[in-house]
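S.,

Sequence below, as promised.
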Amino acid sequence: MAVTVIAKLKVKPGSEAAFEAAAKEMIEKIRPTEPGTLSYVLHKNTADPTEFTYVEVYQDPAALAAHRGSEHMKAFGGKLAGLLAGRPEIAMLSEVARK
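The prediction came back faster than expected:
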């Protein structure tokens, strides 16, 4: 069963470009190494440029676990340490219906 994660992150003002660069680098590493990651999209709030939201869809819980344990995710976490303005808000969702 597919697993969806919605992750909202707030970055410190002035850190937007550094966050975006680190996020894009990490996403590029996901493409060839995580076949169970079906979708991994980063959005930027149009009303608040310091707020970013990931919408992630994984094939199953094992694919999510593989993503979380990947070296590129660990490296990304290290880069975020000085950029975030608080803890991310994470919502784990299970699919109910689809078109």
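The mean pLDDT is 94.

Coffee later?
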